[in-house]
Write a structure and sequence with these properties.
Largest sheet of chain A: 7 strands, mixed
Oligomer: heterodimer
Strand order of the largest sheet of chain B: 2-1-3-4-6-5-8-7
Radius of gyration of chain A: 21 Å
CATH superfamily of the largest domain in chain A: Thiamin diphosphate (ThDP)-binding fold, Pyr/PP domains
Order of helices and strands of chain A: EHEHEHEHHEHEHEEHHHEEHEEHEHEHE
Distance between the termini of chain B: 40 Å
Largest sheet of chain B: 8 strands, mixed
Distance between the termini of chain A: 55 Å
Radius of gyration of chain B: 19 Å
Largest interface: A-B, 21 and 21 residues
Shape of chain A: globular
Helix content of chain A: 25-40%
Chain lengths: 397, 285
C-alpha cells in the first residue's frame, strides 16, 4: 500500500495522469486548472513520462488536438475549466460521437459574466448534453482515483467514450490534502496498455467525422445514447476492480448516515465534505438527517439514486448552477425526472448555493434544513430558491 | 481648495479602482500612463473613446480607464471592438490587451481585423508570457526562454508581431519598450489619429514570472537592458525586426500606409453597384 503524502490536489492529478502513462497532453492555461498541466509539462520535460506535451493556442485547439491524438490511438489527457470548457463546446460533441477515449479533468469554475475565477458548477452543467461520461470528485484522493479509473473506463471496449473528471476549482485544486499516490507499476496492473478499437492507420484507411445525412443521423444519435447509458455496468465493474487493486471503494451514488432519515440533502463535488460535517453535528443533536452525493452524473445512475433515497420524505437539493427563467438547478431537474409519477416520491426543496465561489457554511445548511423541516411538517413546497442573496431571497425581496 | 498638484493622467483613470493589481516592476502601468498622455495629446474627447480588453494582466486596463470600456472574454477583444467600431463610426476604439490574448487565443481575430482594415488601434503589451495564469509559454516567448510549461526553454518558433500586422495590411505599425515613454506616447498619439487599423507593440517586463524564471533580474534591470539593447530604426523592414532571447531590440515606427478602411471599401463597392440608391450607414442612434 502506498504511503499517504501531503500534496496539492492539482499536482496529485498530474502525477496520476503520469502514472497512467498518457501519451499526449494538449492544454491551454486557464485558472484554476493551470497547475495540473504545468506539472505535467515538467514531468514530460524531465523525461519521467514519455509523452507529447502540446501547449496549444486556445482550448478550442486543445480539444481538437486531443481528438487528433486519440484518433491516432494515443492515450490522451487534458485539463481545463470554465471559459475554457465553454470554448471546447463544439469539439466535445465530436470527441464523444467519434468514440474517442480520453480523460479531461475540469477544475469547476463559474462562467462569465461577470468574470469570476471562483468555483461553482456552471461550466460543467452547461455541457451536460455533449455525450461524455461525467464524474464528480469530492476530494483529492477521489480525483486521483477517478483519473486512473477514468482512463480504464474510457478505453474499455464496452465504453469507448471520453470521460470528464470534475473537481471543484480552488476548493480542491489548490488544496494540500493527504494523498495515497499509486505507483506506475500498480497502475499498470490495473490499467493495461491502450489498444484502440479503431484508429487512423495508413495501412487500413478510415475516415472519421464525415457528414451524417438525415438517413443515418438519428441512428448515430441512438448509438450515442446507448453508448453512454450502457457505460454504467462496465463502470461499476471497473470501480469494483479498482477496489480490489487499491482498497478504496467507489459507487455511482454515495450515501452518508442516511439510516432512519426523513430528510436527505443531495449534493455533488467538494461541498459534500462540509455537508458530512454538518450532518454529524445535527445527528449528534438527535436529528435524523443524512446525505446523498452523485459521483456518477453521466450516465445518470437512476436506480442507485432511487435506492439511496428510498423511504425518505423530503430531499434538500443543493445545486451549484441554474437555468435563468427555467426550471431551477440541473440536479433538482433530473431528480424530478427520476421520481416523477412514482408512489411516495419525496418532496423536493430546491436551492441554488455557492455561486461564483460564495462559501457555503453551516448557517446555509441550517437554513435549507429549516425549509425542509417546514415541508416535512406540511408546508407547501416552495419554488426553487437562489439563497445567499444579499438583501433578500428570490421572490421575497 | 487644496494646492496638491493633480497628476495630468488622473482624468483618464478610475482612481477609486486603485491600487491596481500589477506587480512592482511590471510594464503595463507605464504603458497606460503613456496611453493617457497620448489621449490628451491627440485631443480625443473621452466621450468618444472606448477601450476594449481581453483577459489577462493587460486585460485589466479596461477596468482602470475612466471611459466606456469593455472587459471581454479571453481572445475576443478584437471582435467586440469590431462591432463597436462599425456601429459607432464617430468614436475611437482602442483594443488594449496582452500577447497571449491577442496573438494566441485571439490570433485569428487579429489577422482579420488588420486585413479588413477595421478602424481601431490595437495596443499589445508583450511581456512574452501569460502573466495572470502563472507564466506559461505564449506565441511570443523567445526560443530558449523558460516558462512554466517549457521548464527547459521554449522550443517553438515565435511571432514577429510588427511583421504579422504589416503583412496583414495594418496602416500604422510601431514598436517601443516601456523604457521609451516619450516615443511610445508619440506613437500612440499617431495611432489614435490614424484612420483604419493601427498596431503598437509595447515590450514590457514581467518581473514576477518571465524575468524571474529566466534569471533576468528585476524591472529596473530590464529597463537597463531595453536602454542598452534597443536601436531606433524608423521605417525598418518589419521582416528584419524579429526578436530572440535577450537580443537587440529594433524599435521605431515601421509602417505608415493608407488604404480603404472596411467601411470605406463597403461604401465604395455599394455605390458602384447601387449608385444613388445606396444609403450609407451612419452609426447607432
Amino acid at each position: 500500500m502506498a504511503e499517504r503524502k501531503g500534496m496539492e490536489v492539482s499536482i496529485a492529478i498530474a502525477e496520476a495522469a503520469s502514472a497512467c502513462d498518457v501519451d499526449c497532453i494538449a492544454a491551454y492555461p486557464i485558472t484554476p486548472q493551470t497547475h495540473v498541466v504545468e506539472h505535467l509539462s515538467e514531468i514530460v520535460a524531465d523525461g519521467d513520462l514519455d509523452a507529447e506535451f502540446i501547449p496549444v493556442e486556445s482550448e478550442h485547439a486543445a480539444m481538437s488536438c486531443c481528438c487528433g491524438c486519440a484518433a491516432a490511438g494515443a492515450r490522451t489527457f487534458t485539463a481545463t475549466a470554465s471559459q475554457g470548457l465553454a470554448l471546447m463546446h463544439e469539439i466535445l460533441f465530436i470527441a464523444a460521437n467519434l468514440r474517442l477515449p480520453m480523460v479531461m479533468v475540469v477544475a469547476n469554475r463559474s462562467l462569465s459574466g461577470p468574470i469570476s475565477i471562483w468555483n461553482d458548477h456552471s461550466d460543467v452543467m452547461t455541457e451536460r448534453d455533449v455525450g461524455w461520461i461525467q464524474v464528480f470528485a469530492e476530494n483529492g484522493q477521489e480525483a486521483v482515483d477517478l483519473v486512473i479509473m477514468g482512463h480504464r473506463m474510457s478505453e474499455d471496449k464496452r465504453i469507448l467514450l471520453p470521460l470528464m473528471v470534475n473537481f471543484d476549482g480552488f476548493i480542491l485544486s489548490h488544496m494540500v490534502e493527504p494523498i495515497e499516490m499509486p505507483t506506475r507499476e500498480e497502475v499498470k496492473r490495473f490499467l493495461p496498455d491502450y489498444e484502440p478499437q479503431q484508429r487512423l492507420d495508413i495501412d487500413n484507411p478510415i475516415t472519421m467525422g464525415p457528414v451524417g445525412m438525415p438517413v443515418v443521423y438519428t441512428e448515430a444519435k441512438m448509438a450515442a445514447e446507448w453508448a453512454v447509458r450502457d457505460a454504467y455496468k462496465p463502470m461499476v465493474e471497473i470501480m469494483g476492480e479498482f477496489e480490489k487493486e487499491f482498497g478504496r471503494k467507489y459507487k455511482p451514488v454515495e450515501t452518508y448516515r442516511t439510516d432512519d432519515s426523513e430528510i436527505l440533502f443531495v449534493v455533488m463535488g467538494g461541498i459534500s465534505e462540509t455537508a458530512m460535517t454538518w450532518v454529524d453535528k445535527v445527528r449528534d443533536a438527535g436529528v435524523k438527517v443524512g446525505l446523498v452525493r452523485f459521483r456518477m452524473w453521466r450516465p445518470l445512475p437512476v436506480e442507485d439514486f432511487k435506492k439511496a433515497i428510498a423511504g425518505v420524505k423530503v430531499l434538500g437539493v443543493l445545486d451549484r448552477h441554474f437555468s435563468p427563467g427555467g426550471p431551477g438547478g440541473p440536479m433538482a431537474q433530473e431528480i424530478k425526472y427520476m421520481l416523477y409519477g412514482q408512489d411516495h416520491a419525496p418532496k423536493i426543496v430546491e436551492t441554488v448555493v455557492g455561486l461564483g465561489g460564495r462559501d457555503v457554511n453551516f448557517i446555509d445548511f441550517d437554513q435549507i434544513f429549516d425549509r425542509c423541516k417546514a415541508v416535512l411538517g406540511g408546508a407547501p413546497v416552495p419554488p426553487f430558491e437562489l439563497i445567499q442573496v444579499r438583501g433578500g431571497h428570490y421572490g421575497k425581496a | 481648495m487644496s494646492d496638491t498638484p493633480v497628476n495630468p493622467v488622473d482624468g483618464l483613470l478610475r482612481m477609486d479602482r486603485m491600487p491596481h493589481i500589477w506587480c512592482g516592476g511590471c510594464g503595463i502601468g507605464t504603458s497606460v500612463n503613456c496611453f493617457a498622455r497620448a489621449v490628451a495629446k491627440a485631443e480625443i474627447d473621452h466621450e468618444h473613446l472606448h477601450v476594449v480588453s481581453g483577459i489577462g494582466c493587460t486585460g485589466r486596463v479596461a477596468g482602470y480607464v475612466n471611459v466606456d470600456s469593455f472587459h471581454t472574454t479571453h481572445g475576443r477583444a478584437i471582435p467586440f471592438a469590431t462591432g463597436l467600431s462599425l456601429s459607432r463610426p464617430d468614436s475611437k476604439v482602442v483594443v488594449y490587451s496582452g500577447d497571449g490574448d491577442l496573438t494566441a487565443i485571439g490570433g485569428n481575430h487579429f489577422i482579420h481585423a488588420a486585413r479588413r482594415n477595421i478602424d481601431m488601434t490595437v495596443i499589445c503589451v508583450n511581456n512574452f508570457t501569460y502573466g495572470m495564469t502563472g507564466g506559461q509559454v505564449t506565441p511570443t516567448t523567445p526560443y530558449g526562454a523558460k516558462a512554466s510549461t517549457t521548464p527547459y526553454g521554449n522550443y517553438e518558433h515565435t511571432f514577429n508581431l510588427p511583421n504579422l500586422a504589416d503583412s496583414c495590411g495594418a496602416q500604422f505599425v510601431a514598436r517601443w519598450t516601456v523604457y521609451h515613454v516619450r516615443q511610445l506616447t508619440r506613437s500612440i498619439t499617431k495611432a489614435l489619429k490614424t484612420k483604419g487599423f493601427s498596431f503598437i507593440e509595447v515590450i514590457a517586463p514581467c518581473p514576477t514570472l518571465y524575468q524571474r524564471r529566466n534569471k533576468l533580474g528585476d524591472g529596473v534591470m530590464t529597463l537597463q537592458y531595453y536602454k542598452d539593447k534597443s536601436t531606433i530604426q524608423n521605417g525598418a523592414d518589419t521582416a528584419d525586426v524579429g526578436m530572440s532571447f535577450q537580443s537587440d531590440i529594433i524599435v521605431g515606427e515601421f509602417v505608415e500606409r493608407e488604404s480603404l478602411t472596411f467601411m470605406e471599401g463597403y461604401e465604395k463597392r455599394m455605390k458602384e453597384i447601387l449608385g444613388d440608391g445606396f444609403v450609407p450607414y451612419r452609426g447607432a442612434k
